[in-house]
Amino acid sequence: MAGARLLAAVLVLGLCAMAGAGKPSPCQCSRMNPDSRKNCGFPGITSEQCFAAGCCFDTTVPGVPWCFTPLPMEDKEECVMEVSARVNCGYPGISSEVCASRKCCFSDTIPEVPWCFFPKPVQDCHY
């Protein structure tokens, strides 16, 4: 049984690597609330295996997955954040152009949250 699990994990990681999965950006990982982490690995996974699968790896928080799905990538690194961290920079119905003119981030993929929001400095991102 353990051998079958290991084989399945190796196959999944291999397929992810062939699909072009790569190490996520620091902001995609460090801005994720530990309580929001979704498991992306298996018991005993190494950081190298986790990153090769396109996932984040952080062992500093006990009781949550150490290998986890990253936040979605945005056009600009400073715009990568959890939806709950968005601070409104616009108004309902604002266009991406007007939002950009305010030097803010724009993402209209999730309803009922700010679509135009202030960026966060990239310096606070780390692995």
From TrEMBL:
Residues 1-22 form the signal peptide. GO terms for cellular component: extracellular space. It is found in: Secreted. GO terms for biological process: chemokine-mediated signaling pathway; maintenance of gastrointestinal epithelium; negative regulation of gastric acid secretion. CDD domains: Trefoil (cd00111). GO terms for molecular function: CXCR4 chemokine receptor binding. Keywords: Disulfide bond, Repeat, Secreted, Signal. Residues 27-71, 77-120 form the P-type domain. Disulfide bonds join C40-C55, C50-C67, C79-C105, C89-C104, C99-C116. Inhibits gastrointestinal motility and gastric acid secretion. Could function as a structural component of gastric mucus, possibly by stabilizing glycoproteins in the mucus gel through interactions with carbohydrate side chains. This is Trefoil factor 2. It comes from Myotis myotis (Greater mouse-eared bat). The lineage of its organism: Eukaryota, Metazoa, Chordata, Craniata, Vertebrata.
